[in-house]
Structure formats: C-alpha cells, structure tokens
Amino acid sequence: MAYIYKGLNGKKMSEVIASLDEVQGEIWERTFEIAARAEALLVQHRAEGVAQIDMAKGDIDAYVVLEDTNRTNKKHDPKKPYSNSAASIEFGRSGYDVEVVDSSGQVVNEYEVGEMEGLYILTEASHLPKKRRAVRTPKTVRIKQKKRKTSGGDG
After folding, report:
1. pLDDT surpasses 80 at 7
2. Separation CA 95–CA 117 (nearest Å)
3. How far apart are CA 129 and CA 143, in angstroms?
4. Which residue, among 38, 95, 97, 94, has the nearest Cα to 68 in the 3D structure?
5. pLDDT top residue among 122 and 11
6. pLDDT (tens digit, 9 = 90+) per residue, 78-99?
7. Is 100 inside a domain boundary?
8. pLDDT tens digits, one per residue of 108-141
9. Of residues 51, 40, 38, the one with CA closest to residue 126
C-alpha cells in the first residue's frame, strides 16, 4: 500500500509534483505546441506584422502571450495604464463614435469606428471554448485636432 504525505520539505505535494523535471518538461513542450499553433493562426490574419506570439516561463507554469506594440501604444502616458491592442485582437471590440475637436473644443469632424470581431488566436490554439464579451454601451471619443504645419515657400 502506498502512502501520500501532506507535503515534503515545507512544500505542498502538488508543488513537489509540479516541480519535477519530467512535469516541467511536459509543461514547456505543451507551451511550445500552443505557441506554434497560435503563431500559425496569427500569420493568417496579420495585417501590419506588429503583433507577435511569445512564451514566458513562471516558477511552475508556462504561458503563451499575444503581444501587440504599435505606434499608438509605444509612447504611453505614465499616469495611464499601458495601452495594448492584444485584447482587442483576441476578443474583438465594440464600435464607437469619434469627434475631432479644435483647440476651442468645437467639433470639426465626426466619424464612426466599426466593431471588430475577435480572432481568438490564443483560445483556438489552446483548444479552449470561445467566450463572447458582453456588449458594451456605445461611447464617443473626443480627439484634439493637430495643427497643420505650414510650409514656407515661394508660392
């Protein structure tokens, strides 16, 4: 008869088992397989070539990460959370209205940004079921108009 003890050297038994070299090797192998499938799915949809798939290793677990850094979110305000489009790529986004305003706050242009269906890259690569995001209430974004540079010339 086998006995299973509560733990070993102050660790829980689940931590001891998860830390075994064989288990860690299998975790990393599965992570690599998911990352390879995710990269293949992402390549099919890549428009600008900015988004990428990466793998990260934690203490016990390993992660497949969808990263997206572009011109809009590279220069971020330190007071605001870092903007990243990876969530919109994975889950989609709701449509919204945009108002372009001048320096006095007057609306000079209006347009609509349509909703985008998510690609579910990581979800499909991991063979997980898709979960639809809740429908959000419509919103309006106000953008300040940039001043146009005037070129000095002869004419």
Report:
1. no
2. 10
3. 37
4. 38
5. 122
6. 555 555 688 888 988 888 888 8
7. no
8. 888 888 888 889 999 999 999 887 766 566 677 7
9. 38
Token representation of residue 92? 């989609």
Beta bridge pairs of residue 12: 7
**Residue 140: how many CA atoms within 13 Å on its side-chain side?**
8
Beta-carbon contacts of 23 under 8 Å, excluding residues fewer than 6 positions away, are 17
Look at residue 47 and tell me if it is in a domain: yes
pLDDT at 83: 54
In a domain? residue 108: no
Q: Which amino acid is at 45?
A: H
**Residue ranges making up the domain that contains 26:** 10-93+116-134
Read off the pTM. 0.68
- Residues 6+ away with beta carbon under 8 Å from 115: 92, 93, 94, 95
Distance in angstroms (rounded) separating the CA atoms of residues 144 and 71: 18
Count of domains observed in the chain:
1
- 88 within a domain of the structure (yes/no): yes
* Tokens read off for 5: 């003890």
Return the structure tokens found at 83.
């903007």
